[in-house]
């Protein structure tokens, strides 16, 4: 916070501790009941598994059973957190409640991904997940102590600071000195977008040089974006932000490990959720299940070094070219468009999987995708991907 803003802070607003409204206390009681029922149901199911159910499990492969087991475990943990969150709300422990909600959001996203890999997409499941996510975010924003007690103060100070730092050219830098940039939504979103484009450009040039010819390497339905590089860059930034002034060797090693692990898990999810193989490094040096290898881990290491030492400072200057009083509205619009693009891509991929599995469209979304994103369109758009339902782990 700048000295000018600090001097004006007391005169802007006097923060006060708020009580939890009655409706949230009732909601807390409901959370305790739901969480208790969830944990009890899973516990009773674990002790009462029938012989017929055990037999039916033998119809599925090991990977499907492992994912199903993880899903059960995550559900049990979620039940415990529902109970904890309910208790925190009743006791007005806002900070603890916020942490519980943050964990629940991560668990809910993980459960959704497990659901996709085991059962595929269902409209009811997507709607239920979105409702839970929106409720959790809204509740987290409301109960967050820094927001609920000082919302007006922080808004005014933020506007003052943003304007001053924009004029000084330091907007987006981490003022604490612990890292290079502030890890806020604005910075991370534009890192994602810029690296989606840069990653696609680099991969396209690499393919043209090594294999010859042009191949569309895009990862979404519309635009020059490859999300794996965007998510990888966000992951790298979060992990390496405090390493920006460390030796190159350390940055290289951390980047190689994180990049390789991310590439492996992405390949694993795409195969077992959609039967998609987007890359296969089988037979190459130090290949790990064909999902990553030594060369590409080294490439992630080099990219991490270039990113932290060279590209990130320049990207920050590029992003700061957005006028400070437009940055939030522009980012909101672009984020909404990117989310819509990603959601439509997932629907199109799932419909492609269903068609390859021999299933007829059963709802409006699948019929829309069959008409506008048929097999020819998908094969032309996602030229580096091949899809085989036999590779997936779905039970239906």
Describe this structure in words.
The chain is mostly helical and 396 residues long. Helices cover 71% and strands 1% of the residues. The protein contains 15 helices and two strands. A two-stranded antiparallel ribbon has the order 1-2. The chain starts with a helix and ends in a 9-residue tail after the last strand.
How does the major sheet shape up?
2 strands, antiparallel
Q: Please give the alpha-carbon distance between the first and last residues.
A: 55 Å
Tell me the Rg in angstroms: 24 Å
Major beta sheet, strand line-up = 1-2
Order of helices and strands: HHHHHHHHHHHEHHHHE
Topology, number of strands: 2
Global morphology: globular
| Alpha-beta content class | mainly alpha
Strand content: under 5%
Low-confidence regions: 8-16
What is the typical, i.e. mean, pLDDT? 80
What percent of the residues sit in helical stretches (DSSP H or I)?
over 70%
**Tally of helical runs:** 15
Give a short overview.
This protein is mostly helical and 396 residues long. It has helices at 3-12, 22-47, 51-57, 62-90, 94-119, 123-143, 145-148, 151-168, 185-210, 227-240, 248-274, 294-319, 327-356, 364-372, 375-381; strands at residues 276-277, 386-387.
Present the secondary structure layout.
Blueprint: H1 3-12, H2 22-47, H3 51-57, H4 62-90, H5 94-119, H6 123-143, H7 145-148, H8 151-168, H9 185-210, H10 227-240, H11 248-274, E1 276-277, H12 294-319, H13 327-356, H14 364-372, H15 375-381, E2 386-387
Antiparallel strand pairs: 1-2
Helix pairs in contact: 1-8, 2-4, 4-5, 5-6, 5-11, 9-10, 9-12, 10-11, 11-12, 13-14
